[in-house]
Design a protein that fits this description.
Number of helices: 4
Structural class: alpha+beta
Distance between the termini: 38 Å
Number of strands: 2
Shape: globular
Radius of gyration: 15 Å
Strand content: 5-15%
Helix content: 25-40%
């Protein structure tokens, strides 16, 4: 994921559940030098799909991929842009 950002990727289609999205956001926003973050297009593909249900596509992943590829070839992307805050936590030692 970080390599895709470094290479200038503008959009990532992510098919997965909440855990997959969380891992991807950690890779995108985790420590180290920050690259421009691409847009994420989310499809439901996991056990828990709360995030994709909130801001993702409701269609099957293959249908979304076809629509995105056709739209990109035409020079415009369909859909809506939704922003959500990202929670940042760091582990700490508990007092003994």
């Amino acid at each position: 994921v970080r390599r895709l950002c470094h290479e200038g990727t503008e959009l990532i289609l992510l098919n997965g559940g909440d855990g997959t999205i969380q891992m991807t956001l950690t890779a995108l926003l985790g420590g180290g030098p920050r690259e421009p973050v691409p847009l994420l297009a989310l499809t439901r593909g996991g056990t828990s799909n709360t995030i994709a249900g909130d801001v993702g596509w409701q269609e099957a992943p293959t249908a979304v991929l076809r629509r995105l590829l056709a739209a990109a070839a035409a020079g415009s992307l369909p859909g809506r842009l939704a922003e959500r805050p990202v929670l940042h936590l760091e582990s700490a030692r508990w007092p003994e």
